[in-house]
Amino acid sequence: MQDKLQKLLNEYQENYNRFTYGHYLDPNNIEDAIKTGLVGCYYLDQGYLPEKRQAIGQVLALYDKYWGDKLKFGYIDGEPNNLISYTQTTLHEKINQINLAGTDNICFYWSNVDNLEFVPEYLCNAYSRAEWYEKVHQEISYVQIYLPISELKEFGVEQLIALNQQICEILQPMHGFFGLGIQHSHEYYDYQYLEYELAHQFLGLDISNVQADKRLREGFKCINWLTILSDQLITDKLGSLEALKERNNDNEIRFYPYTGGVVVRAGEVPELGDVASNPYPKHYVNVNALLKPARAPEIASLGFGSINGEIRFNNRTSKEWQSRFDDVEATDIAVSHEQHSAEVINMDSKVRISIQTGQLCPHTGVYSAQINGKIEYQELIQGYKVEPFIDSETQQVHNDVTWQLLRREDGGNVYRN
Q1: In what order do the strands lie in the sheet with 354-356?
Q2: Could you name the domain of life of the organism this protein comes from (predicted)?
Q3: Contact call for residues 337 and 327 (beta carbons, < 8 A)
């Protein structure tokens, strides 16, 4: 595993400038507007209950135990305009304030940055609506954590898995995840167009900016390196944990039960899913196929509306992102649910690189296809789904076209290895 971990850390460093954007407000070019690191999120039903509030406080205490010295500023009263030092109150006082909120809102945000415009790499954040609000609007509660990728080595891979088991034992979430994701600032909406680009360049990254989405009552959002499922979700959508194990023949998919659920691990270490080199990590594809019936049928848009013509996530592209591993052939998995109707991508084919309508483009370049007896050409962009082709003369829409790669923008090989 150490070799795989070092390979990931090397890949991360080599690509650092592709997914890290310095903030224009920082003249020293130290603080970032967006970055990539370890992200965990745990989704709760009835977060207003006293036992859930106590559990949220316990998770803050657990994070403080290991990384409390990293936390510098934040707020605990839902008031981001009034940042205070993390050490201004004791841990006991912070937890007591959570418990004393009763069934009202709680919202705290503790991180290693002193300006909410900047992206933290250490963060413990929780949000739970008041009882009346959740009952009326059905929004869910959540606890979220950030860590730098270096903690895979410093804290340890197996130790992070055990920590996730412990967090889940405490919180009893409906579901959740932990793995590589885009870390953003408290003022995340300013950079959603960058998230959109990065999400199409690195398919292993989670996009986490609509956490209280009521649709997540129907199932988990998306798989990651660690995907967390409650016993109830497994029973309702997947049958049983034993049935899952029987359908799995991928020895790098492992199950870590805790009282109330299970953590499912996709491979030894997290994956970036770089579209240019390894867009569909095998174990992610297999976990996706294994757990798909328990996934929420849809999610809220991961982006707000454009304010200046820039591209952000909308409802359609958010759904496409959520299901980005669906069109890829799973191996070592006996899938009991209906396979996707579209032809799956065979990544081992020894022919010219091709892509079908609705699939993700692996390389920016010029592609050709034969349509109605004519050769048509298109320039397709890496990481984006291929849209249906519209004949410029007849306006006929072609929804099932296979495009062959003729020339890559980066000058690389146009044939599959």
Answers
A1: 354-356, 402-408, 365-371, 374-380
A2: Bacteria
A3: no
Strand partners for 37: 181
**Whole-prediction pTM:** 0.83
DSSP 148-183: -TTHHHHT-HHHHHHHHHHHHHHH--SEEEEEEEEE
> Is 381 within 8 Å of 311 (Cβ atoms)?
no
Give backbone dihedrals phi and psi of 135, rounded to 5 degrees, phi first: -65, -35
Burial 349-381 (b: 16+ CB within 10 A, else e): eeeebbbbbbbbbbbbbbbebeeeeeebeeebe
**Is residue 334 pLDDT above 80, yes or no?**
no
Q: Per DSSP, which regions of 174-298 are E strands? A: 175-184, 226-230, 253-258, 261-266
Phi, psi of 249, rounded to the nearest 5 degrees: -120, 15
Query: Dmax over Cα atoms in the chain, in whole Å?
Result: 74
The pLDDT score that the predictor gives to residue 335 is 59
Query: How much is the pLDDT for 306?
Result: 72
CA distances to 270, 295, 312, 325, 383 from 347, rounded to whole Å, are: 20, 25, 29, 13, 16
pLDDT at 312 (0 to 100): 86
Q: Report d(CA 320, CA 7) in Å as an integer.
A: 29
User: Rounded to an integer, what distance in angstroms lies between the CA atom of residue 141 and that of residue 125?
Assistant: 11
- 277 burial via Cβ count (<10 Å: 0-12, 13-18, 19+): exposed
Q: Which residue has the tokens 């300013």?
A: 190
Does the pLDDT at position 247 exceed 60?
A: yes
Give the separation between CA 104 and CA 173, rounded to whole angstroms: 20
